Give the backbone structure.
Amino acid sequence: MKKQHNIWIICLLLAVVVAVTMALCAGLGVVRFDRQQLLESPIFWNLRLPRIVLSVLVGALLSVCGGVYQSVFRNPLTDPYVLGISSGASLGAAIAIILGWESYLWGVGGMALATALLTILLIFKISSIGNRMHTTTLLLTGVCLTFLITAVISLLMALRQDKMESIIFWTMGSFASASWFDVWILIPVAVVGLFVVLYYRKDLNLLLAGSETAQSLGVEVEKVRRRLLFFTTLMVAFSVSTCGVIGFVGLVVPHCVRLVCGADNRRIIPYSIFIGALFMLLCDTLARTLLPPNELPVGSITSLIGAPMFIYLLYKSKRKI
Amino acid sequence: MIEVRNLSYSYGKKSILNDISFSVPEGSFVAVMGSNGCGKTTLLRCVSRLLTPQQGTVLIDGRPAESYSIRQLAQQLALVQQHPQTDFDFSAFETVLMGRNPYQHHLQNESQQDWDIVEQCMKMTNTWHLRLALPGQMSGGELQRVMIARALAQQTPVLLLDEPTSNLDIAHQFEIMELLTEINRREKKTILIVVHDLNLALRYCPEALLLHHQQLLFQGPTADALSSERIATVFGVKAQNIGGYLRFER
């Protein structure tokens, strides 16, 4: 069984490598290169390559975080944005766009990250009673704050209608402005965050059985939950700050993996990393190549591909029972 | 094996357990009985450290329960809850395998020994044929036997069970109690079980703890605990012991 699991991991890793290489070598995009031009072109090195790397990273992180949230909250409909990170980041981005910080290096992204983290700190503070974190209160606080922040963003857009288009475009999510700077910022968070999640992936299974059962089976429930939520929110906040809000990936990828491979997080977490990366790369490649020279919002591509796939798997799995 | 000294617990201002002391020797099979809301489940949760009592101490093998880490405690006590959570689809085998968690490090996978122990526990509880079944494909009795197999896989000297026979038909109730008797006899495990059915307790549990009004009314042989007077005091009904079977009247 372990051998089979390792083979799957290797296959998926190879699939990611092959997909990245194909996306690069095919020279997909508005500007077409031959092989010689490709290696010398700044468009390839400074635009296309960081964009591909970033989409792979963000796809992997959002999928893993979705999987973790679904286990920690014991709710299969939870996605990485449920705690209000996306709305927190969107508020920061909206403020930065209104202040005209788009021209500064990471002006919008930095502000989005700051407000996303502030939102999360506020939510954690409200939902903690003593040393314990109440997950239902956490979810409800996240939902309420999301509504509140969305209202503030709408107000800001109504007041500054000249910036409305930029704000809406940011909230739809895109890798169009991806840079190496975004990649280097995301890599350390991804490495540490993924290590923590992989370290606790067995505990995630036990959390699914209920917190009291988990504790009676030797899991330090509060400590594990806090660490997982801290690192996953950090990964989501950094991801959102680099590319905006890309929905559906974090919900659908871990869920599809669960429908195919079962409920064991020791499989779901590593598989989600690779499948999420592949899925996001595919969606972004389609987003920038389907209607050249225009770009489609990558969020709509993720939903257009992911939703029917998800419904098919759900239908198939329910028929088995 | 288990010693409880002056234990008190309250939810807010409502006292649930008040100054309870008792000790359970190694290898005992003890029924915890009392009327609804008298604190049976709370007592089990305090012993297993799911709840921290406001006063008093729980000693396990002579050591205060707080001095154990959560992992060490899971190697001493296994808990079977009344309503197991089965929202996500783990097979019966995967569920029982979770019982080996207290003996594994985070990045360590199960060893052959763990697999063998799980197989042995599932065979003992007559659930091996269900190893691939998901919770939705099992009956209440089968699910409860799987939970007992998981507790056995923890290989603890103590088993705590909170009404494992509730919601089961009479045949499955007997099956579970016979299984526990067998485990107590063969494995010499100490078993503390919350039971509502007094006849079931009388038939299978040699010892009993009888709780009343947040206090321990009696500890001793189950037949003595379930005397007509004590049943009248605790449950407010008349009872008559006819050849080891209790007959009740209002």
Chain A is about 75% helix and 0% strand. The first helix of chain A runs from residue 2 to 25. The beta strands of chain A are 128-129, 132-133.
